[in-house]
Amino acid sequence: xxxxxxxxxxxxxxxxxxxxxxxxxxxxxxxxxxxxxxxxxxxxxxxxxxxxxxxxxxxxxxxxxxxxxxxxxxxxxxxxxxxxxxxxxxxxxxxxxxxxxxxxxxxxxxxxxxxxxxxxxxxxxxxxxxxxxxxxxxxxxxxxxxxxxxxxxxxxxxxxxxxxxxxxxxxxxxxxxxxxxxxxxxxxxxxxxxxxxxxxxxxxxxxxxxxxxxxxxxxxxxxxxxxxxxxxxxxxxxxxxxxxxxxxxxxxxxxxxxxxxxxxxxxxxxxxxxxxxxxxxxxxxxxxxxxxxxxxxxxxxxxxxxxxxxxxxxxxxxxxxxxxxxxxxxxxxxxxxxxxxxxxxxxxxxxxxxxxxxxxxxxxxxxxxxxxxxxxxxxxxxxxxxxxxxxxxxxxxxxxxxxxxxxxxxxxxxxxxxxxxxxxxxxxxxxxxxxxxxxxxxxxxxxxxxxxxxxxxxxxxxxxxxxxxxxxxxxxxxxxxxxxxxxxxxxxxxxxxxxxxxxxxxxxxxxxxxxxxxxxxxxxxxxxxxxxxxxxxxxxxxxxxxxxxxxxxxxxxxxxxxxxxxxxxxxxxxxxxxxxxxxxxxxxxxxxxxxxxxxxxxxxxxxxxxxxxxxxxxxxxxxxxxxxxxxxxxxxxxxxxxxxxxxxxxxxxxxxxxxxxxxxxxxxxxxxxxxxxxxxxxxxxxxxxxxxxxxxxxxxxxxxxxxxxxxxxxxxxxxxxxxxxxxxxxxxxxxxxxxxxxxxxxxxxxxxxxxxxxxxxxxxxxxxxxxxxxxxxxxxxxxxxxxxxxxxxxxxxxxxxxxxxxxxxxxxxxxxxxxxxxxxxxxxxxxxxxxxxxxxxxxxxxxxxxxxxxxxxxxxxxxxxxxxxxxxxxxxxxxxxxxxxxxxxxxxxxxxxxxxxxxxxxxxxxxxxxxxxxxxxxxxxxxxxxxxxx
Amino acid sequence: xxxxxxxxxxxxxxxxxxxxxxxxxxxxxxxxxxxxxxxxxxxxxxxxxxxxxxxxxxxxxxxxxxxxxxxxxxxxxxxxxxxxxxxxxxxxxxxxxxxxxxxxxxxxxxxxxxxxxxxxxxxxxxxxxxxxxxxxxxxxxxxxxxxxxxxxxxxxxxxxxxxxxxxxxxxxxxxxxxxxxxxxxxxxxxxxxxxxxxxxx
Lengths: 934, 201
Ligand code: SF4
Ligand code: SF4
Ligand code: FES
Ligand code: FES
Known about the structure:
The complex is a heterodimer.
Chain A: H1 2-8, E1 11-15, E2 18-22, H2 28-34, E3 58-61, E4 68-69, E5 80-82, H3 86-101, H4 113-120, E6 143-145, H5 155-163, E7 169-172, E8 179-182, H6 198-202, E9 208-210, E10 221-226, E11 235-241, E12 244-250, H7 262-266, E13 281-283, E14 304-306, H8 309-327, E15 332-335, H9 342-356, E16 361-362, H10 370-380, E17 397-401, H11 405-408, H12 410-421, E18 425-429, E19 442-444, H13 451-464, H14 470-476, E20 477-478, H15 480-488, H16 492-499, H17 503-515, E21 519-523, H18 525-528, H19 533-546, E22 556-559, H20 566-571, E23 578-579, E24 583-584, H21 588-598, H22 610-618, E25 624-628, H23 632-635, H24 639-648, E26 651-656, E27 668-671, E28 680-683, E29 688-692, H25 705-715, H26 725-735, H27 744-750, E30 752-754, E31 780-781, E32 800-805, H28 821-826, E33 831-834, H29 836-841, E34 849-853, E35 858-865, E36 873-877, E37 890-893, E38 900-901, E39 905-911, H30 923-933
Chain B: H1 19-24, H2 36-44, H3 56-67, H4 72-82, H5 86-95, E1 107-112, H6 115-119, H7 122-133, E2 146-151, E3 163-165, E4 168-171, H8 175-187, E5 196-198
Parallel strand pairs in B: 1-2, 4-5
Antiparallel strand pairs in B: 1-3, 3-4
């Protein structure tokens, strides 16, 4: 094809009289820029599709009658282009003049690109009466809309519809009345806008700006870092002034290419919240612990007294040491956090293993992907993803199951939506219909809890119709015969009534998946958080292996990691059965290696997991606990039981930035540093190790977490002296072959390196298992799975299924995001999503208070109608302390991953109920106060 | 305190907590269930349209024909059915003058602003009736009684100034007779069939 020629070969032409050469596919404006020639432009923005509507960028091409827009014109061999001929300049200036004279008197943005070009070309623009404008729209908590400064360049439309694919902004009306609208001409704050902020970034004039004048303040400095929230691992830049973060912008990282979501962009001011802990606290003698506490984080001194670091540390380590001495090491345990850095996770587990001398160390991975990891380790020898999220662009088919990335991995979702726009077929399987369903070629709303039935039926079809990749099985897989025999019993016809998906549809998606050139599977907590979570994951692994859809770009298995560092914390050994890099504690070789490295004796007995530890406390076997940054008093299933356990401990030491529900039950609380106050590495869902850099000083006497862990170690008799994260990281490189080749200097320079990276200088492998699997034989193993029903099925007394999870604006137990002003303003109150007909059936309307009761507890909260939630089920996020849904959840565990069944328990609904007196932490309300001042 | 919307508060903004709205807003934005009339139209006619973009205009027309205008819920239902975003639908619908988004009043008063009528004082007519009904041209009174409109020429210039009330053409109208006409129309719960009269006669 002619085009191909043009696109693969460099083109030589003349630019303002000089010979230049254009790279393949480049437009004139891009070539010019590379050669230091700037052409005015407004509707064009680097990285965006050129739209060519403003004509500020016109250039003169010899022999052509009309001027050409350089943003969408490609050079041709021998072309003579002038960007500054009198004709071109005249035309450029005219465009700028017209647009400028239409602008309001006051500029909304210090960085207006229009003003920039007006100055640059010395355009003198007379000002006319401001044109009719719809007036400002300040309805959104994060974004101010002043459409009188809109030049209709459509950059925001492209940002919202083509990049982020949120489809909120558009053009309405026509001719001189045409204007930018949100949804059905709604105020922005009432529209379906998800506040990703991409349109603000795109706007060249300030018509869309950060709210409350935030964009007008100049920063003292900027700091390049990463987002503290989800596993996508977006890179970002903090704009800092006077030790405060003014705003956050996306940075060009491998996972996000400058995109961010609402949490990453607006969820930062929790660090400045008045409830930050700034002094060590010691529990008062007259403050008994109880599982039924009502806490007031504004008044810690009713339960604690302030203390010096010396006193607090002495009490903390003294208490733990006394238990170790009197009850033995197994009476101690530690919970680290997937929110902390790799270095913190590594040091924490080292402290527990060498200081407490037990393997009772775990973290919230147990509550999210433990079952996926168990199945992956068993099947393919590695718990990490095979391909990065952005590989979906190379996939012909993407199977996304039990995951709502629009809410939980928003930027990952944008890559999926982009791929769909480029032709990838999305098969979405989820009992709750998310907004992604609109983009899916096949949306399967299967019944909750029937994953194995659905997946086995797909495999049944693949076997029956000879779609199995026999060569792949022969060369790289074992256990096929057993799997084949197992799925024989799962015909789509037999499974259809079980999972609520017609047999024909099951067959069709099975064929689609098996026969495509590249099919990739991504999944989330909908798969893992079941008593059969490991079986669910086994099925996905088998599906991928039997069709040979792994080991190439656009294929493979990707369990979407929740926390920003859940991958890294697990890698670093923050789990009870493994040392760093998944070396089993009960393998003598591994034990010997770490005994040598750490120069100490180690326990060969695998430790207890999160929920098991709580049980052990109730049994009196565990007496002392050290918690760094976790909040099990909110996040554990049957949280009343967990709170009871925490209250029962002889010594509980909690290190956190806020007085969390967990800290409230502590004997000693150690004030730690927030994410932007420290430096460390974080590993995202793609196995990308990235550097988070310190941007702020901590408030008051809050200290670096690494310092606190070391002081705890010192108190327990260890002599550690790590000068900082770099030294810890270097020790980790010696312990962990997978990251051995990553140097700190390289992290500082490149901000991120993908592992495996075993030798210095390795580029890092984005796609793994291309030749063999990291198992002993090099082959993957198929493991058949049978149907195991959920532990607690609905019955006459408790007829509804409760599904828990997260929502877009709030992170996990809400201790950070509910203190972030914008996020709290968008979602200030606890809500349950429920089908409108079910709501109707209990006589309630949207917005009414309802009560939800399980065998373990009751919560009352607002009802929100959502016809994406299936009939007979309801969904509640677990971030609301005033309606803590984990009071209801069922603490049964998957036998392999030890993960609780958060996605399924039986409840009943009633209209009405008493709301908690307190709500929120005053984040959103404090913004209302700011407004009143103005 | 500055007036919201004054130009001397550049870039300021930031809403109040959306409490009420946030509680009932569904993840995709719509508040469910739909208005019963929309629901009926959708069940009877709407659902039969093929779910493709080429159905956008026919479906909008069908909804308007049966509901009298395009209520929000109808727009939501159409967007959902055709799997297009609400804003895409808004873009199309607002492009054509034939679609209306506000519920029309029970009575419709159209004042001519054509040249002949203008010369004979129709702009004062319009001013007075706007003040009287407390509604701007193009709008509907708060009680849903009257929709006031302007039109450029009825082709009845000989009768200028002309006002059409519920389809009845009235010529040589004065502010006082117009008020009487509107009051009279208000006596009938439903629009009366159209006639041609001369209010002055
Ligand atoms: S903030 Fe994001 S979702 Fe909202 S209108 Fe802008 S681009 Fe669209
Ligand atoms: S997608 Fe995840 S990593 Fe990216 S900005 Fe949002 S929360 Fe942060
Ligand atoms: S920048 Fe090229 S037409 Fe707008
Ligand atoms: S100008 Fe009024 S009817 Fe012609």
